[in-house]
Each structure stands twice: as structure tokens, then as C-alpha cells.
Amino acid sequence: MSEQNKEGLPTEAELAEMDRDQLLKLGGKLDDVELVEYTDPWPVKGTKAEKRAERAVAAWFTLAGLSGLAFIGVFLWWPWHYAPANTDGHVLYLLYTPLLGLTLGLSILGVGVGVVMYAKKFLPHEVAVQQRHEGRSTELDRQTFVAHMADAGDRSTIARRSIIKRSALFGAGAFGLATAALPLGSLIHNPHKDSTNENGLWHTGWLAHDGERVFLRRDTGDAHALELVKPEDLDAGSMETVFPFHAPKSASGGVDYAKLDGMLAGTERVDEHELVEALRRSDNPVMLIRLRPEDAKRVVKHQGQEDFNFGDYYAYTKICSHLGCPTSLYEQRTNRILCPCHQSQFDALQYAKPIFGPATRKLAQLPIEVDEVTGYLYARHDFNEAVGPAFWERKS
Ligand code: FES
């Protein structure tokens, strides 16, 4: 006789012969499990209440599935491009993010409530108390445990509830697709596709094409208004947000000043699309800062950018080098530029290097100059360093 038999346990052959109920009972006995309660939630099959519970579970899974599909639809086809206020599509643009949140949230809610409701309504109500044993479970324990789980599955009646199975599959499938759409979408999208050249991520709207001049355009709050900035427009110790404006070119290749004057006076047509696009591009906004004369004397310039300022005027990107929030706050007394998102601070007197908070890189500086004919400020060339937080091809 084996040692197992000596202890009153079945031999391997006897174990193989046992059915699930016998294994269940044996497992409970061996594990010192006391079943306080183990009741079938639906002792009478096919009642109206049971059907109602079944439909309720299916309804939640269906909601999860429809919401997941809606999320994918919004993610792929909703007009998400920035549309400024008072333009067509502004309301649709504003709805994009809330709709993504709403549909994905409903999908998660549907799967969660469906699973919880199914467990409460259809799994056997079991209350058991078991002493905890140390070490790895024996083969016997493992087999009885598997039998127990299979029994719970059978008693949950999932096998014959096709409406719940189908709706759960639909809900979980659509939810899975919706969550996969985000990382897959960003892998499929080609970041260079809409760029004007193959290194589009390295350039901003301040890039001048074929010798054109890019002026500093005032942010008036009206996407269609064109106002350029002269040095005397800013008081000492003040800051203004500016965007790029690509001046019209003359036949000889320089600035067409007559046309530019007409545009500013409203007598020449301005390309409305270009005006709006300049506000759209996320790496375009720039802070134009005029330092107080006494502060300007203490400026420390960055190597290679010694001539990027024009007198007391310094232009830094508004895009925080930490996570890309707009660093819109300039504190005149301390000459600090503040990012409201995570409280990074940059020193405007030291090439906007970070001096507090999580940001580790300086704000990119735009080289500026005054146009000799009109007196308006313009960018001598695009940024020569990365703007904002890292992207995957960045080397600095
Ligand atoms: S985005 Fe500016 S501190 Fe985080």
C-alpha cells in the first residue's frame, strides 16, 4: 500500500477514476475548506428574472462594443485638425477630445459592469473558509483546484448563455481594438507626410523658403488679422506672443514691400489659409521679450547664439522643453519664464536655461533682426535647435 493510502488519500489510479464532484469534495476535505455557502443563483431555470439578468449583462457588453467601435470611428475620421474660433469646424474640433474620452470611457464601463454583473448574477454564491498552507501545491491539490474552477465555470452556465457569450465577445473585442488603435495609429502615421521637406520635424513655420522673409506677427486673437511688430511696440520688461508671417516676394526675389503695405492696410488680399495655418502649427508660437535696460547688461548668451537677439529683444519658443506646455508667463522682476504645467522656470537673462522644475533643456531661441525698410522685426532663420520636448529622431 502506498504512503497516500496510509494517510487515507486516493492512489493515482483511484484519482484518475474520480469524477468532478468527487474531486470537489475530496479537495475541500483535504484543504480544510469549510463551505459556508454554495448556492446556485438560479435553482429554477428559465425564469423571467433569469432572462432579464441575462439581457442586462448582454446590454452592458453591447454598450461596450458599440462605444469601442464609436471610439475607433472618432479616432480615425473625426476632423481633429485645429480650427480657430470663429472658423468653420471649430465646434467639431472642440468635440474631438471629449468624444474620444466619452466613447472609450463608456467602453471600459460596459466591459467592467458586464463582468461584475455576470459574476454577481450567474456564478454560484460561494463562501468558503480555508487554512493557508505553505509551499508548492501537490498534484492532488492542483487537480482538485482545476476541477473546482471547471465546476464553477459550468455552474455559471456560461456555456449555454449564447447571448452573453456573443455580446461579451463583441464588447471585449471592440474595447480591445479601441485600446489598440491608439498605439497602432501612432505607429502607422507618417510624421513626415505633410512636411514641406523630408526633415519636417526639424523645422517650424519660421523656416524661410527661397530667400523669403518671415516677419513676427502679433497675436491679436483674430486668426484673420495681420499685424506685424516693431521694436517700439513693446515696453521695457514686457512680453508678447508672436507667430510667423511669410512676406510676399517680389519678382527679383526680395520682399514685395508695396504688396506687404497693402496687406497691412487691408487693400491687398492676404492668404487667409496661410494666416490660419500659422496659428495652427504647435511649434510656431514665440515669446518676444523686451528686457529692461539694466537687466540687458547682465545677459549671458549661449555659445553659437551670441547674435540671436536684437538689442534688448529676445525671442524664445513658447513650447516648454519638458512636456510641451506653453510657457506663457514672464515675470518681469526676476526675468523668469514660467511654465504653468509643472512649474519649470527658465532664466531669460541666461539664454532661457532651466533653473527650476523638471525641464532639463533650454528654450529654443529664435534669431531676430529689424527689417531695414519697414522697421518690422523678422526672423533671420529658423530655430537651430529642437523645439519643445523630445521626439524620436532627436539627437540632442
Ligand atoms: S511642460 Fe513645462 S514644466 Fe512640464
From TrEMBL:
<dbReference type="InterPro" id="IPR014349">
    <property type="entry name" value="Rieske_Fe-S_prot"/>
</dbReference>
<protein>
    <recommendedName>
        <fullName>Cytochrome bc1 complex Rieske iron-sulfur subunit</fullName>
    </recommendedName>
</protein>
<keyword id="KW-0411">Iron-sulfur</keyword>
<dbReference type="InterPro" id="IPR036922">
    <property type="entry name" value="Rieske_2Fe-2S_sf"/>
</dbReference>
<dbReference type="GO" id="GO:0005886">
    <property type="term" value="C:plasma membrane"/>
</dbReference>
<dbReference type="InterPro" id="IPR017941">
    <property type="entry name" value="Rieske_2Fe-2S"/>
</dbReference>
<keyword id="KW-0472">Membrane</keyword>
<feature type="transmembrane region" description="Helical">
    <location>
        <begin position="168"/>
        <end position="188"/>
    </location>
</feature>
<keyword id="KW-0560">Oxidoreductase</keyword>
<keyword id="KW-1015">Disulfide bond</keyword>
<keyword id="KW-0408">Iron</keyword>
<keyword id="KW-0679">Respiratory chain</keyword>
<keyword id="KW-0812">Transmembrane</keyword>
<keyword id="KW-0479">Metal-binding</keyword>
<feature type="domain" description="Rieske">
    <location>
        <begin position="283"/>
        <end position="377"/>
    </location>
</feature>
<keyword id="KW-0249">Electron transport</keyword>
<keyword id="KW-0001">2Fe-2S</keyword>
<keyword id="KW-0813">Transport</keyword>
<dbReference type="Pfam" id="PF19297">
    <property type="entry name" value="QcrA_N"/>
</dbReference>
<comment type="function">
    <text>Iron-sulfur subunit of the cytochrome bc1 complex, an essential component of the respiratory electron transport chain required for ATP synthesis. The bc1 complex catalyzes the oxidation of menaquinol and the reduction of cytochrome c in the respiratory chain. The bc1 complex operates through a Q-cycle mechanism that couples electron transfer to generation of the proton gradient that drives ATP synthesis.</text>
</comment>
<dbReference type="GO" id="GO:0016705">
    <property type="term" value="F:oxidoreductase activity, acting on paired donors, with incorporation or reduction of molecular oxygen"/>
</dbReference>
<feature type="transmembrane region" description="Helical">
    <location>
        <begin position="92"/>
        <end position="118"/>
    </location>
</feature>
<dbReference type="GO" id="GO:0046872">
    <property type="term" value="F:metal ion binding"/>
</dbReference>
<dbReference type="GO" id="GO:0051537">
    <property type="term" value="F:2 iron, 2 sulfur cluster binding"/>
</dbReference>
<comment type="similarity">
    <text>Belongs to the Rieske iron-sulfur protein family.</text>
</comment>
<keyword id="KW-1003">Cell membrane</keyword>
<dbReference type="Pfam" id="PF00355">
    <property type="entry name" value="Rieske"/>
</dbReference>
<dbReference type="GO" id="GO:0004497">
    <property type="term" value="F:monooxygenase activity"/>
</dbReference>
<keyword id="KW-1133">Transmembrane helix</keyword>
<dbReference type="InterPro" id="IPR045603">
    <property type="entry name" value="QcrA_N"/>
</dbReference>
<feature type="transmembrane region" description="Helical">
    <location>
        <begin position="57"/>
        <end position="80"/>
    </location>
</feature>
